[in-house]
Structures are given as structure tokens and as C-alpha cells.
Amino acid sequence: MNTNSWSSLIERMLAGNVRALSRLVSRVENREPGWMEAMKQIYPLSGKARLIGITGSPGAGKSTLANGIARELVAGGFKVGIIAVDPSSPFSGGSLLGDRLRMKDLWNLDGVFIRSMATRGALGGLNQSARDVAKILDAFGKDFVLIETVGVGQDEVEVVRAADLVLVVCVPGQGDGVQALKAGIMEIADIFVVNKADRPGAEEVCLDIESMLDLDQSSDKPKPPVLRTTAHTGEGLPELVRTLLDLCSSPAKGRDWRKMRIREELIGLLGKELIGLIREEWEKDGVLEKAVRQIEKREKDPYSLVEERLSLWLNRDRGRIPRS
Amino acid sequence: MNTNSWSSLIERMLAGNVRALSRLVSRVENREPGWMEAMKQIYPLSGKARLIGITGSPGAGKSTLANGIARELVAGGFKVGIIAVDPSSPFSGGSLLGDRLRMKDLWNLDGVFIRSMATRGALGGLNQSARDVAKILDAFGKDFVLIETVGVGQDEVEVVRAADLVLVVCVPGQGDGVQALKAGIMEIADIFVVNKADRPGAEEVCLDIESMLDLDQSSDKPKPPVLRTTAHTGEGLPELVRTLLDLCSSPAKGRDWRKMRIREELIGLLGKELIGLIREEWEKDGVLEKAVRQIEKREKDPYSLVEERLSLWLNRDRGRIPRS
Questions:
Q1: Cα(B83)–Cα(B142) distance, rounded to whole angstroms?
Q2: Region of poorest pLDDT, from A135-144, A234-243, B112-121
Q3: Residues A94-114: pLDDT tens digits?
Q4: Chain A residues within an 8 Å CB radius of B311
Q5: What does pTM read for this prediction?
Q6: Are the Cβ atoms of A306 and B270 closer than 8 angstroms?
Q7: What is the chain B residue with the closest CA to A41?
Q8: Are the C-beta atoms of A188 and A161 separated by less than 8 Å?
Q9: Minimal Cα distance from A60: which residue of B?
């Protein structure tokens, strides 16, 4: 039996084999042939795990916090996985000098499975890749999947938007830190965490957040709690995890939100697949290269070329133009 | 004559009317009907401006630097536009408390046109929108378009990757700042700028960058210069702009790079348009909603649904299945 076949990998993964899990994740991320069939098999076995998004600016201590939360959850009898999509995270290798080679998976002492994802080069798109990996970890038996990501980029924000619960992490002494987070981040926070709370200025950050929350009249969702932690000593972590479990058992995000999430995933997935196919088709017979040359010489503009291509596809689709 | 028609806007924009320019940019960004026709008209008039990408972590002083560079260039007789896609930039309103309303355009004292773009909600995608706006500013007559963006997110990096010349901005005292930048940023830098060089630690940051550059054997492009500035006093700006002009007149990025950029733009543009059309088609007659319900009840999985949809489209395309 081929131990590297998809079905063998899935079988061993479901039996608890971490190496099989790791390989499965890589192959799905790399969109190796058969990945969709594999995800079809895995999907029905997922749906139990809670996704917790952890976001904030670089240097906010998100990795240490994720580790701490994982430890608390494990102590409470839960199984936990971590996905790190943060370029500045030590998990994802961003802080290693000359990181040509990255450690993709780590297992820490508590048996927490940690998967790092590069922010660029994810073939299915960062967002979809993170969702796929979360589903595999879910099927593997994890109760919680923590997704750690910086809250600055568009894609990164999308990743945590898909989580069941979002923690936004701030720290004292980052001047524009809280401010920088604001655009698009305030709205998605379910819990605010002021980390490194032993540093001077923690009180001000809390007040800052509270006053921003008070100003925000637009939302009808409950005001997110603001909690303090010092992740590297563990201070505040039990309270944070208690709040997190409370919120998970009475989800603030209802049925509409779940539907929205499914809708976005469907369209994202279809779009990515379609672009791959389109690119392939366009690259055939040098058609794309010809277009590039025409634009380079300014004989044509990209907008006209795209429109031509679209109308070709759509007319074909409608059967108006017979296929040549 | 309808002064709001596309042709009138384009005509007035080309005559130097800044309000028309501003409105045109908004309408293209919002993908209002006719935007593609408008861009087709504008495209042949573009191609002269140099795109300068300015990237770095939040708090690195990118906006002040962009302003300073613009001032220097204007003093040298050039026309300059700035596009700010940085959520932490004061231009894009990220740092204003309660920024529900954002100032979209600003004209500073030097007549520099500054356009801010939200990092989320750009209908054509952040990357494409920035390129469109750059082309309009180009056609308007700008010699240089500075694109300011944080260098952390995936999309944000893509934006500056498309620039003719990329400045990566670092500052002393941001601990993991230089490190955080590394993933994916080192490779795209044409010039490193150590800003706030009057602060302690500037020397270390320069050495840090130099040693990372020395370690990087992978690239065959010339080693990017490392320059020091104190943007708020203007210190170092003349040297920076001189280097920038030098590099622009003897571009390190050759023909292959230009082709790659055109290719990426074509595929991106086509993909975005296609996804819009697909979404529309899928939403018709409640087909998408039905799919969402099926997934919610776990009767189906998203992967199978996307595959079904794709094979429907592609088979249609190949004329195998007659259109119902």
C-alpha cells in the first residue's frame, strides 16, 4: 500500500498520526492533484472545533499569548492547534536570520500542533489555505484552533474575520499601535487583550480602547471586554481563557454570520480555482504572451484585452460563438 | 453637456482640473459602469510616470518621508502624486479618532495630489485599484507617483512590488521592525531608508540591514544602497532623492520584469472581473443561497459544490453540455 496516497494519509491522520497530518496539510496547501477530493472527504468530519483569531500589530506578543492560551486550554482538557500566518511570528520563521528554510510545523511540550504558513505564496490564497488547514485540524480532533496573524494587511484581516471569536491584542508603548489597528479591526474584535500589562502605560491603552468602544455607536453587538495579560509570566491568562470559553458557549455571532462566512468561502474558493484554470487556458498557445507584447508596445491596453477575453468566454458560455 | 459624464470628466482631467481628476479616480475605484471604457481611453496617455513604492512597518514615518520626497521632487521641477494605502497613514485617515468619514483627497502646499485608499473595500482589489489610480495620475501629467503602504500584509506587498522602484523604510527602536520586514520585503527593496536617523540606534539598524544584505547571496541584482534620513527635519532627503533619480534613469529592473508586471496585471484584472460576473450569475435565482443552506446543514461540502459549478461552466464552455 502506498503510504503517501491521499487515502492512506487521511486514514492515518484520523488515527492520530501527526506526521500524516503534517504531510496532508502541506499537500493541500500546495494544491497537489487530488487535494479537492481529499478535502471533500475531510469536510464532513470537521465542524466541531472553534476557531479563535488572534490579531494585533507586530511585537504585540501574539505568539507568546497563543502559546499561553493553548497551555491553559490543554490544562482544561481541550485539544488545541495553532496556525501562525504572521510574518513576524517566531513560529512562521519571520524572525530567523536568513530564513530561506522555514520550520513549517512545531510540536511544543503540551502536544499542541503548530502550523506556520508563509504570508506569500499560498497557492490557494492565504485566506482559503488557513481555512483548509483549520478544517483538517478540526477533523484531526482539535477542539480549538488558534489562528495568529498580524492585523495590518487586507488578507490577514480576512483570515481572522472568518474566526468564531476574535482577540485583538494591543500593547503599551507602541504609540500609534492602537490607532493603526483601528481601520477595520475595531469592528471584528470580540475580546480586546492588553498584553505586556506589566509595562508602564498599560492603563492608558485600556482607557484608550474603552473610550474608542464608547464612541462606537454603530454596532449593536455587545461591547467586547478589555482584558489584561502578561503572556510571558502567565498573568491574566486564566481570566482570558475563562472569558473566551464563556463567549464560545454563548456565541454572539449568529446564523447570519455563519451564512456569510460560508458564502464568502464558496465564492473565494470558486474564484481561486477559476483564475488558475483561466491562467492555464490563457497561457496556452502563447496567447497571454502575445497580449503582454502588445501591451508592452502599447498597441493595446490591458482593459480592452481583458474585455475581449471575457466576452469570448461569456459568449462561448452562452453558445453564441462556436468553439474554434 | 453633462459635466459628470465619463468623457467630460476625462476631458477636464486632461486639462488639469483637479476636481475632475478626483471624481474620476473615485468612479474608477468604485467600478461604476463605464469604468473600463474610461480606463481604455486613459491608458494610452499613461506610461511616462515613474512609480515609487514606499513601504515599512507602521510608525516608520512613511507619510512624512513621502511628503519630503515629494517636496524635493517638486523643487526639482517634477510633478508628483501620492497614493496612500497604509491603514496607519495620516493621509488615509487611519490615525484619526472615530474615522467614519475619511478625507479621500488632500492637496498640500506644493500642489501635490494625495489620494488615500482604504485597505479594505476596494472593489477591484487593492492592488488593481492602486494601479488604476497610478495610471490616471500618470495621464494627468505626474512625473512621479509615490505609493505609500505598510509592508506587512500580502496585498500591501503586492502593491509595491508593481512599482518601478521600491524604498523600504526602517527606524531605530522598533526591535523586531527590521526582522518583521524580512519575509518577502528584503527581496523587493531597491533602496533602504533608515528614517528617524537622529534617534539612538540608527547606526545599529544600518549595520543590521547591511549584514542581512551581505548574507543574501541569492540575488544577482545590485546591492541596494542604505541611506539615512530624518524626514521631519529634511535631513538626508536631498541625497535620497538624488539616489532615487539616479536609479530611475538607469533602471535595474529590465524588460523581463516589465513583462512580468504586465502579465500579473492582466491576470489579476481578468480574475477580478470574472469573479464579479460569476458571483452575479451564482446569486441569480437563489442558486448560491441554496448552496449555502446545503453546506450549513452539512448536506454538502463547499469543495464538491465548487467543483460542480466549475465543471458546469467549463463543460458549457466546451459545448459538451447544452445550455438549459
A1: 12
A2: B112-121
A3: 433 223 233 445 555 567 888
A4: none
A5: 0.70
A6: yes
A7: B301
A8: yes
A9: B176
